[in-house]
Amino acid sequence: MIKKYSPIFLFLICFSFTANAQEKFVHNLSKVPASLNPSFHAFKDKTRIGVLAEFASQAQGNQSQHKYAFGSTSFDEYNFQLGVDLFNNNLKNSGYNYTSAIISYIYRLQLANEWYLYPGISGGYSNYRFDFNNLTFQDQLNIFTGQISANTIDPITASENIGFLDVGASIMAHNDENMIVGLSFKHLNQPKISSRQSENNVNLNMLVSAQLGYELDINKYGQAKIPEYSYIYFFNAVSLQGPNTRLDFYQDVTLGNFSIGVNEHLNFFEAASFTEIGFATSITLETFEFGLNYRLPFGAQAKQFLPNSLELFLVFDISRFKERGRKDYSRFY
Question: How far is residue 273's CA from residue 90's CA, in Å, rounded to a whole number?
């Protein structure tokens, strides 16, 4: 298949080689908030492992995919938690691949009125790889014979492998009833991500994000029309990176071991803005939760650059003293 430049690829190159390089955000953020704020690994001091994958495609043939895996465990006797995050994002047929491995240390402080505070630090290694050798450029195409030449004079044909150390900090606080707040800083060291072919030094902008979650019990009095343990959970996040802003809003309804929700995402770049809408559902069976989020770009401009995508996740709670077959499905249980 002939590989041609597509709008999403050009858009990716633009943002990858400038100071406006952007994060790839997980769309099931209300379920796996530690992907944005590592201090959430310590929420309720649980030991958990999980995996998440996105499947998306473009009409031009490019397939984008991100994969995320994490693990966390609590050391109660020492009042701290360790978390590990592994992330991969690639754009098939276009030579772009990003990988990251981060480990986090989160300390627990008990405050007054049943509040807990979790400050954390993170460090790891990340790598950007751009492999343009597999692309077919315009000067390689013979429009009269349909043949493709093996040679091109386009200077972009090269492979770039940019690795760097990454440092972050985070904090999270929650009570035992219904509220959680967080603040995170990624890329504190603003690592250099310049291409060797670039004449200017380019550094990855620091990502600052604030999060707020609130749970509302909608069946306090055990009404028979809905399951006994039913909740509405609101989760919001505001993220800033350089001149760019992202707003995430989640509304999840939990009905026993089943949940359903909608989410909205607003992206404001320096020269464009995009809106996305997602529909989510999940089911919890004893020690594991499985769910999905189907995302749709909203508006003509967003549809030009963003594909529809399906994101699946599976999380296991393997805490040592976890009660099997729990009945209360509150996040704060």
Answer: 22
Distance CA 84, CA 102 (A): 6
pTM: predicted TM-score of the whole model, two decimal places: 0.83
| pLDDT tens digits, one per residue of 27-62 | 999 999 999 999 999 998 889 999 999 988 665 555
pLDDT tens-digit readout, 162-181: 889 999 999 999 999 999 99
Contacts of 9 (CB under 8 A, 6+ apart): 60, 62, 91, 94, 96
**Cβ partners under 8 Å of residue 212, min gap 6:** 180, 181, 182, 235, 236, 237
**Which residues are bridge partners to 309 per DSSP?**
56, 295
Domains defined for the chain, CATH in brackets = 7-317 (2.40.160.40)
Q: Token pair of 9, please?
A: 């690829």
